[in-house]
Amino acid sequence: AKEAGRNRYQFHSEDMTSSATDRLSLERELRGAIEREEIFTVYQPQIELTTGQVIGVEALMRWQHPRLGLVSPADFIPVAEDNGLILSLGERIMRDSCLQARRWCDDHGVGSVAVNVSAVQFRQKNFTDVVLSVVAETGLRPECLELEVTESVVMRGVESAVHKLRTLGAQGIKIAIDDFGTGYSSLSYLRQFSVNRLKIDKSFIHDLPDKDAEAIVCAIVTMGRSLSLRVIAEGVETEAQEKFLQNVECNESQGYLYAKPMVASELEAWLTRWSS
Ligand code: C2E
Ligand code: CA
Ligand code: CA
Ligand code: CA
Is 145's C-beta closer than 6 angstroms to any atom of ligand 1? Predict the structure, then answer.
């Protein structure tokens, strides 16, 4: 057993060395990427399940590297968080999204644009000022901006989190809890946070149909309803998953079943097709 334990450790430490090198080169590349403007935003529609209307879009970051190809945000966002680049990247995607959403709200009746917020951004003392000045500068109605934060982000520094979210909420900005069900939110906190939406993590949707996943999805929808929160499911890929969500009266749905994340011009064409 000891032998096996040692081997495991050696394997693990080799693993860490190579990933540390990867991270270093990724960090160097990332700084260049921002200068070369290789980072851009894609948008994925969010559908109201009873009407089929597009009630919003989620903004997601993409990095098109000339040699590496499309680098996943799951790989480069942790690097950008470590070196602080996420602050300027995060502000930029928020500004782009607000500018685009102004047109979509007017021309296509899209209700809101949802922007992911990293823990590093949220922890900044001036986070609310940054958000409010982006909204003011872009002229988007604050009700049309939704911030997606994860449970762990808000639960970590509960007092200042409550304060920040309340300040933003008081200005009309919407808050969604992302990856809901994977963290440890307490119900009483959810009420204090002035949260508007729960986003059921896609791992539960992926597992449908399955007894446990069904029970969890159902419990989240019921809880959301009793707290007057809207509930959206992410990662919806099949008609069977959609049907289940409709049956339990989940409000909204997002996933490849409707559309992949698209650049702004593609989204506009998609919106026109969807509503005709
Ligand atoms: P997330 O916020 O939970 O985003 C959902 C992910 O699911 C996205 O991956 C999206 O493209 C993908 N997705 C959408 N529909 C489906 C589907 O039907 N099936 C499956 N299997 N996946 C689907 P993506 O774009 O690769 O982003 C991964 C994560 O990177 C995001 O997870 C988020 O945590 C982070 N991220 C992306 N953009 C940003 C950003 O601008 N700021 C921050 N802070 N994080 C971001
Ligand atoms: Ca998200
Ligand atoms: Ca999510
Ligand atoms: Ca996630």
Answer: no
Q: Which of 9-23, 37-51, 145-159 has the lowest mean pLDDT?
A: 9-23
Ligand 1 pocket check for 262: Cβ under 6 Å: no
185: left (phi over 0), alpha (psi -120 to 50) or beta: beta
pLDDT, tens only, 250-264:
999 999 999 999 999
49 CB burial (10 A radius; 0-12, 13-18, 19+): buried
Distance from residue 99's CA to the centre of ligand 3 (Å): 23
Residue 147 has a CB neighbour count (10 Å cut-off) of 23
**Ligand nearest to C-alpha 254:** 1
Q: Is the CB of 45 under 6 A from ligand 1?
A: no
Q: Specify the pTM.
A: 0.92
Residues whose CB falls within 8 Å of the CB of residue 123, separated by 6 or more in sequence, listed in order: 157
Between the CA of residue 181 and those of 38, 185, 219, what are the distances in Å?
A: 34, 8, 10
* pLDDT over 70, % of the chain: 91
